[in-house]
Amino acid sequence: MYVVFLNYVRPVEEVEALLAAHIEWLDRYFDAGFFIAAGRKDPRTGGMLLVREMEREELDAILAEDPFVTVAEYEVTKVNVTRAAEAFAGLKGA
């Protein structure tokens, strides 16, 4: 799986202008089963996504569709989950 941090590089007013389209993008990939969780950073300097296992090229293509691509940079880290609480056992890799 991947942890993706979005770091805003433009003023929050520009981010807000794209928020509705960003939420539609999130909904599309949650509905497709690609995204596991998402949320804002606190303080509001960006956001975070947990993304299921896939080829990195596929993830890069999905991220390129995000309307926030013009107002944020993406830091992508691949994670091999080896321990998880029982409720999240499905996140563990092989």
Describe the protein.
InterPro entries: Dimeric_a/b-barrel (IPR011008), YCII (IPR005545). Pfam families: YCII. Belongs to the YciI family. By secondary structure, this protein is α+β, with helices and mostly antiparallel strands. The protein has one domain (about 1-80): Alpha-Beta Plaits (2-Layer Sandwich). It is about 30% helix and about 30% strand. The chain contains three helices and four strands. It has helices spanning about 10-15, 20-30, 55-65; strands at about 1-10, 35-40, 45-50, 70-80. It has a four-stranded antiparallel sheet, with helices on one face. The longest helix has 13 residues, at about 20-30. The N and C termini lie close together (about 10 Å). The model has no long low-confidence stretch (mean pLDDT about 95).
Tally of helical segments: 3
**Under CATH, the topology is which?**
Alpha-Beta Plaits
Distance between the termini: 12 Å
Biggest sheet architecture: 4 strands, antiparallel
CATH architecture: 2-Layer Sandwich
Mean pLDDT: 95
Strand content: 25-35%
Q: Can you write the helix and strand succession as a string? A: EHHEEHE
Q: What is the structure about, briefly put?
A:
By secondary structure, this protein is α+β, with helices and mostly antiparallel strands. The protein has helices spanning 12-17, 19-31, 56-64, and strands spanning 2-8, 35-40, 46-51, 72-78.
Question: Which terms summarize this structure?
Answer:
94 residues; alpha+beta; Alpha-Beta Plaits; four-stranded antiparallel sheet; globular
